[in-house]
Sequence to fold (165 residues):
Amino acid sequence: MATKFTVEHVLNITPEGFWTKIQPSEAFYQALYIDHLGYEYELLECDLAAGTRKARIKPTADAPKVIRDALGERFAFIEDGRFDAAAGRYDFEIIPNTFTDKVRTTATQTMVPHGSDQCVRTVHFEIDAKLLGLGTILEKFIAATTRASYGDSAQFTNDFIAKLG
Fold:
């Protein structure tokens, strides 16, 4: 059974500002993933006109031994996303480098105005891990680390926005 959850954070930028200044900014992603989170990060493709973006990310989260044993020490994933400007939505899938046919994470991110110069970033996630004896553990671990990393990234994003001026 899939794990579904939602994260919400207030960002100090309008939705339009986020979609035009943050979402397409490679400098933002490098600062977030490499400098702030200490992850390995590589942009694989980006087509701003089509709204598509694909990046390889290797997180540093300290997974429980049972998960490390199953996924391996070199666990990484591809974030494959598409921004729909008309809908004001970014849909993405997280594709792991192991168990690609058994673990699926999808998400939809939206931004709604919050006052005159802020927005609420809402991301709906669905994680489905079909691994006998490990699926529920993996889903809970991914959900917990995702919630924590999105909370951390919200503060980082606000700090990054403040530096933009």
Remarks:
- The beta strands are 3-11, 40-47, 52-58, 77-84, 89-96, 103-114, 118-129.
- The chain has one domain: 3-164.
- The two ends are 45 Å apart (CA to CA).
